[in-house]
């Protein structure tokens, strides 16, 4: 449709209506999917940079849609946040991740992504404690990942929630570090154990001047604040070598292992796992 003048507005209205329609269908589908158990968690290994020894796995949500097949989180997390459904989804994720991790043949940690909306709008502490009690997973084996988006609108309550979690033994990682707008002072306000260096720095390690310098700076920052550093999105041996040289503690990426269903994990342990 070519839009000009009044037609231009008509086109605009139609496409907005179509988008709202699509959103609405997605929401209805999503509610049904939750009720029908169409969601599943895939797990991606996180290993020591030097030895490739398995230390943990990140849980990544997938929607096994009856018509559309496997749907990635980028297509439904925002909708789930806007509609508040992320509360129910997030609870299911925590319950499932803890229950599945409790059956793993190793004692790797399980890292669970927490949406900023879930963080602000639900009683995260209660939900996490229930998941731990129900599964019997030791709190030391649970790690939560939050992004800088949480920090942008933080209140004293949020800091206290994180401290309580930490006192329980749960560890806290700052996800996608280096991409947001948060001031570095947040790093001492919040009790982070780990900095996850965003994939863009790994990707540009060779391509862009100065990226190696940024990774080194983050590693030094992490060291002086007593935080572990993890590089995301490691796809090549060269990247791994450079990250190791920069002093990154842990790595995660397709080179080491792709996200896979829990069933695959039990059948074939991740590379680096103890034989
Ligand atoms: P994230 O937390 O930064 O997760 C890492 C993403 O990078 C995952 O995409 C993972 O599959 C992908 N990835 C891992 N290694 C590589 C690599 O070597 N190369 C490339 N190109 N990509 C790699 P995924 O699973 O599609 O998740 C996208 C985002 O959706 C996540 O980013 C996270 O923000 C969100 N998400 C995923 N699962 C959950 C969840 O359970 N709860 C919440 N609240 N958000 C989730
Ligand atoms: Ca993450
Ligand atoms: Ca990330
Ligand atoms: Ca990301």
Q: Overview of this structure, please?
A:
- There is one protein chain.
- An eight-stranded mixed β-barrel has the order 1-2-4-5-6-7-8-9.
- It is an alpha/beta fold and 275 residues long.
- The protein has helices spanning 5-36, 77-83, 86-101, 116-121, 124-135, 148-152, 156-168, 186-189, 199-203, 211-224, 237-246, 262-267, and strands at 39-48, 54-65, 69-71, 109-113, 142-147, 171-177, 194-197, 228-231, 250-251, 260-261.
- The protein has twelve helices and ten strands.
- It binds ligand C2E and calcium ion (3 copies).
- Ligand C2E is lined by residues 44, 59-61, 72-74, 77, 93, 113, 115, 175-176, 233-235, 253-254, 259.
- This is EAL domain-containing protein.
- Residues 23-273 form the EAL domain.
């Amino acid at each position: 449709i070519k839009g000009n003048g009044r037609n231009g507005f008509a086109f605009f209205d139609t496409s907005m209506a179509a988008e709202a329609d699509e959103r609405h269908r997605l929401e209805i589908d999503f509610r049904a999917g939750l009720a029908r158990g169409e969601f599943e968690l895939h797990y991606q290994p996180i290993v020591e940079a030097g030895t490739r020894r398995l230390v943990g796995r990140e849980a990544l949500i997938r929607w096994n849609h009856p018509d559309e097949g496997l749907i990635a989180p980028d297509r439904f997390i925002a909708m789930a946040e806007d509609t508040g459904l992320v509360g129910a989804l997030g609870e299911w994720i925590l319950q499932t991740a803890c229950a599945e991790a409790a059956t793993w043949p190793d004692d790797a940690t399980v890292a669970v992504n927490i949406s900023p909306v879930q963080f602000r709008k639900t009683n995260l502490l209660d939900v996490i404690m229930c998941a731990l009690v129900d599964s019997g997973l030791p709190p030391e084996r649970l790690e939560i990942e939050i992004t800088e988006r949480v920090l942008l609108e933080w209140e004293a309550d949020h800091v206290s929630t994180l401290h309580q979690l930490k006192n329980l033994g749960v560890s806290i990682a700052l996800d996608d570090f280096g991409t947001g707008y948060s001031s570095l002072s947040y790093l001492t306000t919040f009790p982070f154990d780990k900095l996850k260096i965003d994939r863009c720095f790994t990707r540009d390690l060779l391509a862009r001047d100065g990226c190696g310098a940024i990774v080194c700076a983050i590693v030094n920052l992490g060291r002086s604040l007593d935080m572990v550093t993890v590089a995301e999105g490691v796809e090549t041996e060269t990247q791994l070598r450079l990250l190791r040289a920069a002093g990154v503690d842990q790595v995660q990426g397709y080179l080491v292992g792709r996200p896979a269903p829990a069933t695959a994990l039990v059948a074939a342990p991740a590379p680096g796992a103890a034989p």
